[in-house]
Design goal:
It is a single chain. The protein has three domains: 214 residues, Isopropylmalate Dehydrogenase (3-Layer(aba) Sandwich); 125 residues, 3-Layer(aba) Sandwich (Isopropylmalate Dehydrogenase); 39 residues, no CATH class. A hairpin with a 5-residue loop joins strand 9 and strand 10. Helix 1 runs parallel beside helix 14, helix 3 runs parallel beside helix 5 and helix 11 packs antiparallel against helix 12. It is built from 14 helices and 18 strands. The strands form five sheets. It has a ten-stranded mixed β-sheet, sandwiched between helices. Strands 1-3 form a two-stranded parallel sheet. Strands 8-11 form a two-stranded antiparallel ribbon. The protein is globular and about 75 Å long. By secondary structure, it is of the alpha/beta class. Bound molecules: NADP nicotinamide-adenine-dinucleotide phosphate (NAP) and magnesium ion.
């Protein structure tokens, strides 16, 4: 069978530990036999990030801007222990944070649904995609403890030196705490556009919520920016696609999400997205089945698995043991990227291949073949726990 030819290269970001091992296996067993892969390779493994003073991360993000589509392996975000383990020159920043800052993107997380893995909310028969605004609010805060007898104010100095002051609290009788947070109209607008574009792509309704009844200026600004961009740029397109944009209060959206059947994109402010994405990952069953894509407002896509480098399994692998690690979310990162490349370059065979590989992956799990962690929650009767490589070969055998 002739291999599928590509036109524009895919940006390939390799990573660390167990996922790095799986990365190569996926390419060898599931991609290279079928696709004449054109990729621009960046090694984001911690060793090479350290050798290049993290320049490789920046270069990979710039290449993603240039070509439009990337696929990323999970990477270690160094902490003090990793600095020692890898003898690092510095505690390099999270590659995902660096890439997100350069692409100005929004992260969309979507679970893969398979028979046998029943969500904790059994009425969720379709995936719920979470879009988290990954800028500002409490993640870029300034906070202080305040002594009794102090008065705390917000002070803004404009470009001419004029001050605007507003009382936060007069701490007459008790010690206390204060916090300053901010966001940017530009960042909120980018977030909104990424969400509207993603909803049009997925042909799914978009819900957005904040607490604008309490936060009448701050959260209200989010609501207004979304509404304005929707009216001016997206309303007609949404109507044409037969989908809806819907704003409500965060409390109300929680009630609606729980009662829904899924099939929605849920746009969240930074904190809501942080917390709710963890809730959804657990509720849908498994981190090994959670996909993630970073979408920039200019239409650049970076696909990855939501899970990390699966360190514990890697140490077993190093000790010469066979691991049973779930490769599915990483496979879906590849299929997402290949399909998008196919769409952008008009290569229908590449899109079809991505569809087939996803179908084969799901069929494998629904035939009862899976990793150990998935088998612990699967309700299927005939389960066969396999090692990582066998899992991939079983998938390959099902590519129709
Ligand atoms: P993790 O790698 O996601 O693993 C946490 C645990 O979840 C694993 O030990 C394993 O449980 C289970 N698990 C996750 N993915 C699995 C899979 N594909 N198959 C089977 N089991 C899976 O998270 P972590 O241990 O907190 O972080 C490890 C490293 O990953 C850290 O250095 C962190 O910086 C990095 N990280 C990177 C990213 C990213 O690049 N996007 C995201 C998160 C974390 P059992 O051990 O019980 O089998
Ligand atoms: Mg979280």
């Amino acid at each position: 069978m002739a291999k599928i030819q590509m036109k524009t290269p895919l940006v390939e970001m390799d990573g660390d530990e167990m996922t790095r091992v799986i990365w190569k296996m996926i390419k060898d067993i599931l991609i290279l036999p079928y696709v004449d892969l054109k990729s621009e390779y960046y090694d984001l493994g911690l060793v090479h990030r350290n050798e290049t003073d993290d320049q490789v991360t920046i270069d990979s993000a710039e290449a993603t801007k240039k070509y439009g589509v990337a696929v990323k392996c999970a990477t270690i975000t160094p902490n003090a222990q990793r600095v020692e383990e890898y003898n690092l020159k510095e505690m390099w920043k999270s590659p995902n944070g660096t890439i997100r800052a350069i692409l100005d993107g929004t992260v969309f997380r979507k679970p893969i649904l398979v028979d046998g893995i029943v969500p904790y909310i059994p009425t969720w028969t379709k995936p719920i995609t979470i879009a988290r605004h990954a800028y500002g609010d409490i993640y870029k805060n300034t906070e202080l403890r305040v002594e009794a007898g102090s008065k705390a104010e917000l002070v803004v100095t404009d470009k001419d030196g004029n001050e605007t002051r507003a009382l936060i609290h007069d701490f007459k009788n008790s010690d206390g705490i204060i916090q300053g947070v901010h966001n940017l109209d530009d960042s909120i607008a980018s977030f909104a556009r990424s969400c509207f574009n993603f909803a049009l792509d997925a042909k799914e309704d978009l819900w957005f919520a904040s607490k604008d009844t309490i936060s009448k200026t701050y959260d209200h600004r989010f609501k207004d920016i979304f509404a304005e961009i929707y009216e001016n740029e997206y309303k007609a397109k949404f109507e044409e696609a037969g989908i809806e944009y819907f704003y409500t209060l965060i409390d109300d959206v929680i009630a609606r999400i729980i009662r829904s059947e899924g099939g929605i994109i849920w746009a969240c402010k930074n904190y809501d997205g942080d917390v709710m994405s963890d809730m959804l990952a657990t509720a849908y069953g498994s981190l090994g089945l959670m996909t993630s894509v970073l979408v920039s407002p200019s239409g650049v896509y970076e696909y990855e698995a939501a899970h990390g480098t699966v360190t514990r399994h890697y140490y077993k692998h190093l000790a010469g043991e066979k691991t049973s690690t779930n490769p599915i979310a990483t496979i879906f990162a590849w299929t997402g990227a290949l399909r998008k490349r196919g769409e952008l370059d008009n290569i229908p065979e590449l899109c079809e291949f991505a569809d087939k590989l996803e179908a084969a992956s799901i069929k494998t799990m629904e035939d009862g073949v899976m990793d150990k962690n998935l088998s612990l929650i699967s309700k299927l009767e005939n389960k066969r726990v396999v090692d990582t490589e066998t899992f991939l070969r079983e998938i390959a055998a099902r590519i129709a």
